[in-house]
Amino acid sequence: MLPGFASGIRVGGIRALSISGTPVTTATEDSAYAGFTAVASGGTLPYTYSLVGLWPPGITVNSGSGAVSGTPTTPGTYASLSVRVTDGVAATADLAAFTITVAVSGATSQAMTPSAYVNSNGPRQSMLPGTFINEA
User: Which GO MF terms does the UniProt record name (predicted)?
Assistant: First the structure.
């Protein structure tokens, strides 16, 4: 190989379009996804990136840079995902399929009824402003 030339399949003098990247396969609901960037090479500029498959809601790809990021909002297992690059002459290449698992957030919410109160010494205030529960 001559110095300064990259290896790869060439079609009509142009290296075939390819895509690479290392997906982060775990995430947590309502927390920023660590993300990754898909990188295209070969083909004909410009490149446009898109998501393939049913991704977790809240995760997107920057169509110009290939950066995958966001905050997933729904826990679950999302299989057969990929990132596709399309070049300037409509050739495409996809990352190998992978799965992302979104865990349930550690934060919990509790429903409280207006009459609930905390057991303590002294008057107990209900959840209704300005009202007290008389236990005497």
Answer: calcium ion binding
